[in-house]
Amino acid sequence: MDEIKSVAIVGGTHGNEFSGIYLLRQWEQQPQRIQRQSFSTSTLFANPPSYEANKRYLDSDLNRQFSLADLDNIELANYEQSRAKAINAFLGPKGNAKTDLIIDLHNTTSNMGPSLILLQSDDFNKKMGAYVMQNMPEAVIVYEDQCPVEEQLFLCSITQQGVIVEIGPQPQSVLRQDVLDQMEKMTLLILDFIDAYNSNTLPALNNYSAYRYKETLSLPTNEQGERIGMVHQHVQDNDFVALKSGDPIFKLFSGEEIYWHGEYEAYPHFINEAAYYDNNLAMSMAEKFTVVL
Amino acid sequence: MDEIKSVAIVGGTHGNEFSGIYLLRQWEQQPQRIQRQSFSTSTLFANPPSYEANKRYLDSDLNRQFSLADLDNIELANYEQSRAKAINAFLGPKGNAKTDLIIDLHNTTSNMGPSLILLQSDDFNKKMGAYVMQNMPEAVIVYEDQCPVEEQLFLCSITQQGVIVEIGPQPQSVLRQDVLDQMEKMTLLILDFIDAYNSNTLPALNNYSAYRYKETLSLPTNEQGERIGMVHQHVQDNDFVALKSGDPIFKLFSGEEIYWHGEYEAYPHFINEAAYYDNNLAMSMAEKFTVVL
Fold it and tell me: Bridge-partner residues for B141, per DSSP?
């Protein structure tokens, strides 16, 4: 891969995920914290009106508006659909972007710790994961590489190299010091990695364990589509802990328990994420694997 | 005090505090769970439109609209100001209420555990606290009795006997099984207590430790009123843990730490509650004392 010459750090894609929004403000005061020798760094506050409204979004989820078809469809005209096109023009356009790499900063209400979500498993990303893990052993590396980057809907898919920094648990509309510190640490490590990659000064990197997205589970609903149960407390807060076949995953309001019967060893994450209720989602499932460099 | 003849359980006063809303639905299916021999129990979903909007409130905080002056002021006409008057007519009117006791169900993002908030320290409430503690040792009893009940702004101040069941931590717009179970347990214990009180069958009750609200601390701000710091991680999640003079309570974005210098042993609670950001509040402070029966 060519050298990375321009990096954009994006915060506030979701208006009630505060860590990125506050970090952008701090970096505006002290820009040297995100500047590196071998590339330029810019910042972007993606969705200020949703922050003002103290909501994830005004009309629709900004972080699902970046398919090539939707970006090309001018009839998709609500606030986030419009804002996506503006951001795409500013950092992109997707497929031929003037920016080389986007770091999009997110929080989750789930107990995922400091997670780095990578959209493809190329040599660059595999090394980035190794570098972050070696300097931040508490980090978790998640590959969401089930489709080519250009087919992804995420903001950071504007650029071929795009990553999501996802830190939790943090309630919506809250700022936690520990979560803020983890987000800054991981973001600065990514910048350090890019700088070392550009200048061919990467340290020795080791193979590591990571997770690969597999599927998303829905909450149990009745025929009218109403939720009839919740995430079981056996699973709650146990992100990235292996589920065994027969383990309880849902508790119905009737008292009944629903069990996991998967054909693989599943590592749930995004467990009981507040923003997933819109679509009755309960958690994502991943498989664990070893990244070989 | 006279016998309690009618109890109203209120949920969804804040639309993004899900436990009470879901419990009301379950009790609708199985009303016998909240029925007791010596009094009638009704339920009320206080703010359905704010639940539909997935927000605490549409226009203003419903749980601050119940002063006698505001209830009498027909010019206060936004949604929650109007809904408050409707609820007051239905359960009250405040000062001469047809309901004897209101239990208002709330969640907090703070690590307060199962808390019972009492608005006056009369013999009835002191015994209620003892009864709940004896049957639920993890419960915390908080007296917010700094003014007469009729001067309180809370929904449950419609009735002279009104209590708040406040369970956390739970992010806004999330339903946790453990929090739901604690809320139902505490609510049913309050109903059991009332039934035993009415029928003169209370067990022997013991003195207990409780907390009394003292003051509320604001987040540090600059001259423009912008937040310049956050709750220190030394305090985060340590609700009802004593603060000593000299302990850090805020971390400024500049890196500086702010210390607590109180003239009393303070027990912080509602620490970093999401809903408090509207007013730049950081936490409430209480003193610990012994309730003597």
Answer: B116
Residues of A in contact with B236 (CB under 8 A): 176-178
CB contact under 8 A, A176 and B232: no
Query: Does the predicted model carry a pTM greater than 0.90?
Result: yes
State the nearest Cα–Cα gap between B7 and chain A, in angstroms.
24
**φ, ψ for residue A212, nearest 5 deg:** -125, 125
Length of chain A: 293
Touching A: B residues 113-152, CB under 8 Å: none
Q: Is A277 on the interface with B (CB under 8 A)?
A: yes
Length of chain B counted residue by residue: 293
Contact A274 B236 (CB under 8 A): no
- Report the mean per-residue pLDDT for chain A: 97
What's the pLDDT tens digit per position in A77-109? 999 999 999 999 999 999 999 999 999 999 999
Query: What pLDDT sits at residue B2?
Result: 80
Contact B171 A55 (CB under 8 A): no
Separation in Å, CA of B221 to nearest CA in chain A = 14
Q: Is A253 on the interface with B (CB under 8 A)?
A: yes
Q: Residue type at A250?
A: F
* In the predicted structure, residue A2 carries a pLDDT above the cut 90: no
CB contact under 8 A, B174 and A277: yes
- ipTM comes to 0.91
SS3 assignment, position A229:
strand
Tens of pLDDT, residues A62-83: 999 999 999 999 999 999 999 9
Domains of chain B: 6-206 (3.40.630.10), 213-291 (2.20.25.160)
Cβ–Cβ < 8 Å for A158, A133: no
Cβ within 8 Å, pair B176-A233: yes
Burial of A259 (0-12, 13-18, 19+ CB in 10 A): middle
What are the helix (H) ranges across B143-236? 177-198
Closest residue, chain A, to B232 (C-alpha) = A177
Residue A259 confidence (pLDDT)? 97
Please name the residues in contact with B237: beta carbons below 8 A apart, sequence gap of 6 or more. B111, B169, B271
- Given a cut of 50, the residues of chain B with pLDDT beneath it are none
Mean pLDDT of A39-60: 97
How far is it, in rounded angstroms, from Cα A45 to Cα A47? 6
Residue B174's nearest CA partner among A54, A268, A213, A227 is A227
